[in-house]
Amino acid sequence: MSQRKRAANTQSSQNKGVRTQRWEAVLGDDEDDPTFTQPSTSQVQKGLDRLTPAQVDLKTAEVVQFIFVKDQKKFPIRRADIVKHVVKEYRNIYPEIIKRVGRVFETVFGLKLVEIDSKNHVYILINKLEQLEGESVNMNPSNPKTGLLFVILSIVFMKGGVVKESMVWNTLKKLRVDQGERHEIFGDVKKLLTDEFVRQRYLEYVRIPHTEPLEFEFRWGQRADMEVSKVKLLEFIGQLHEQDPQSWTQQYRDATAPPAAPAVVTSANTSASVSQR
């Protein structure tokens, strides 16, 4: 290989490495931006007056794309990351942009952008597909990880919303899933349950105080509360045991209780909502 070709290949590899590092930094940076404060309605309107509709639409599309990429691993998306890496100099119209982003997800993709932490401004995307009336209950997801998650959520739900970690492992062991062995499908199961599912907000993994040796318990996470139907879960368990779901009195009461409305990102709950231009 000539010296010129080697130099070109080296430069190409370096450029590719820089691009990869930059993209990984965008997706993995968790540093907050202390300089950002939520703009007022008047500040948003002044910001919009300085921009064209095309500029606002383009920035909205960039935020939608960013959230889609971040959501691939089902990890929550932080406002600080959106502002720092995408919105940037448009931060003075952030409330309007995030309002439009929420509307795009709902009207175009059938998804909901939900703020699960109003203090730290953390969002998730949820897809709550309602079952058609008369359709039989089917809780056999094609994704094996989703199936495992469903099993764990079922255990937690049937035990009143909180279950010791040891009980979860005892149940999974009967299904030939052992925390001490690397599973051919799930890989490191311990890490999957206590790290990945927790970071995705499907589960909470909480230390039980005053235990020696240390013990932990699982609870339903915020995302599970929004995405998983407890009624359908109980109907499925009833089918497995050939029992009426109402025979589990407490669980049935919990499943049929009116859910708290999630903070869906729309014009109704955006702190600084302005009229369309």
Short description:
The protein is built from eleven helices and six strands.
Topology:
Blueprint: H1 3-28, H2 41-49, H3 53-71, E1 77-78, H4 79-87, H5 94-108, E2 112-117, E3 122-126, H6 144-158, E4 162-164, H7 165-174, H8 189-199, E5 203-208, E6 215-220, H9 222-227, H10 230-241, H11 249-256
Antiparallel strand pairs: 1-3, 2-3, 4-6, 5-6
Helix pairs in contact: 3-5
What does this protein look like?
Helix content is 51%, strand content 10%. The chain is mainly α and 277 residues long. A three-stranded antiparallel beta sheet has the order 1-3-2. Strands 4-6-5 form a three-stranded antiparallel beta sheet. A hairpin with a 6-residue loop joins strand 5 (203-208) and strand 6 (215-220). The longest helix is centred in the N-terminal third of the chain and has 26 residues, at 3-28. It is elongated and about 65 Å long. The relative contact order is 0.12. Residues 1-31, 129-140 and 271-277 have low confidence and may be disordered.
List keywords for this structure.
277 residues, three-stranded antiparallel sheet, elongated
Number of strands: 6
Order of helices and strands: HHHEHHEEHEHHEEHHH
Characterize the biggest β-sheet: 3 strands, antiparallel
Portion of residues in helices? 40-55%
